[in-house]
Amino acid sequence: MLASSRVLAAQRAVVNQRKRALHDLVTLPDRKPIVSQGTPGYSAVSGHVVTVFGSTGFLARYMISKLARQGTQVVVPYREEDTKRHLKPMGDLGQIVSMEWDLRNDDQIAECLRHSDIVYNLVGRDYETKNFKYDDVHVKGAERIAKIAAEVGVQRLVHVSHLNASSSSKSAFYRSKAEGEERVKAAFPNATIIRPAAMYGHEDKFFNNMSNWPIWWKLNHGETKIRPVHVMDVAQALANLMGTPSMPGTYSLPGPRTMTYEYLLDLVSSVTYNPPSGTPTLPKPVAMALAKAAQNVWWPALSPDEVERRYISDSEVAGDWDAFGVAPDAIEQHAITYLRRHRSADNFTRPVVFPDGRATAA
Residue limits of the NAD(P)-binding domain (predicted)? Predict the structure, then answer.
């Protein structure tokens, strides 16, 4: 007990001796001050209250972890009870506040926003269902969140779109993303629009899907060009927005290199020591027919629009990483982290070998 008391006394002394500085103060556009306090870390208080819509998704879990580590109180709207349980331990007591919501319920959305000074909209859908089409989620839903955020006086809105968002795209997914951006900017003129490329990481639908179902990545003979980005880099860029009082505009966050699906399949094969897939390259009409037939099952399956996206190369716009103070990592730096689980027991500890023959330590 005596030792514990001394530790607590030492911690209090450090906190009491810490003096406030200019970087502890952030002034919002309405002149409201946000003052942080406490030693930096898990139990600090950043002064911000943040709402993250789409909090149970792939990108959100990493961003929420980074926000909570800074002492930010995070409101996490959820639809199903079990989908948000993993978020609770990411913050100190009272930092992670879960609230049930529905995308079509204005009152619930307003309640989730009532105390927030920053709102992140990460809601997205890779495939359509009978209840939610692309238009319902990416257009109407995004517009509803932006309008209500403006009505209740939220100072900042960060809307996450996609690198390939375009009103003229052959993909309904990309078209809905572009229309959603326009609706958000009309409802919330000072919104920050973020356009990340396809993301990889733990629990992703990129490396894991490529390892398990290479046939769907061989479409277009693997010649489609893509600029994948590490999910942790995107999460860090979004978390860094808290330190800026205002940052309106559209920002693109592509990966540092452009590569083809053919190279990525070779990368997966080299890193996992699994032989290249012998599955054939399906013609587009055949892939479309199979994808349409797969929509009759009750679990998420490859949709026709996803097949269409396999033929669309990523936009070659320049990245805006400097605006967020983040330097994106090359995909080879993290490939083994997410692909080791696909190795056999005999190959589990073997060195990492890349398609060009270079080898690194395991």
Answer: 54-203
Q: Which pTM was predicted?
A: 0.88
Examine residue 339 and state whether it is found in any structural domain, yes or no: no
Q: Which residue has the tokens 């490396």?
A: 207
Within a domain: residue 2?
A: no
CA dihedral for 62, 66, 71, 72, sign (positive or negative):
negative
In the numeric block, the tokens 């290199």 are attached to 257
Q: Is 293 a member of any domain? A: no
| Residue-level pLDDT at 355 | 87
* Rounded Cα–Cα distance for residues 38 and 185 (Å): 36
What pLDDT band is residue 246 in, cutting at 50, 70 and 90? confident
In a 3-state reduction of DSSP, which class is residue 204? coil
Q: Say if residue 250's pLDDT is above 70.
A: yes
Token reading at 184 = 């958000």
Report the CATH number at residue 244: 3.40.50.720
Ranges of beta strands (E only) in the chain are 25-27, 33-35, 49-53, 73-78, 96-100, 118-121, 156-160, 192-196, 199-200, 225-226, 229-230, 249-253, 259-260, 352-353, 359-360
Biggest alpha carbon distance in the chain? 75
Q: Which residue has the tokens 């592509």?
A: 254
Q: Is a pLDDT exceeding 90 seen at residue 172?
A: yes
**Tally of structural domains, the chain:** 1
Range of the domain at 26: 22-203+227-253
User: Could you tell me if residue 327 is inside a domain?
Assistant: no
